[in-house]
Write the structure tokens for this entry.
Amino acid sequence: MILNSWNPPLLNQMALPPCHVLIQFYVHQGKLSLQLYQRSGDVFWEYLLISLLILYYL
């Protein structure tokens, strides 16, 4: 499953493109894995990581 943070109709209203572009959930060797693709890290990176870990363990 891939979550995409891009919303093309709103790109012209954004000051910057989203830092985290794609979040991918996949099964590797029988275990759930999560991979984050991002263009840069900002000051709120820790909150993103915590929210992704909560989502992962749900």
Summary: Residues 45-57 form the longest helix (13 residues). The longest strand covers residues 20-28. The helical segments are 45-57. Residues 20 and 48 are 9 Å apart (CA to CA).
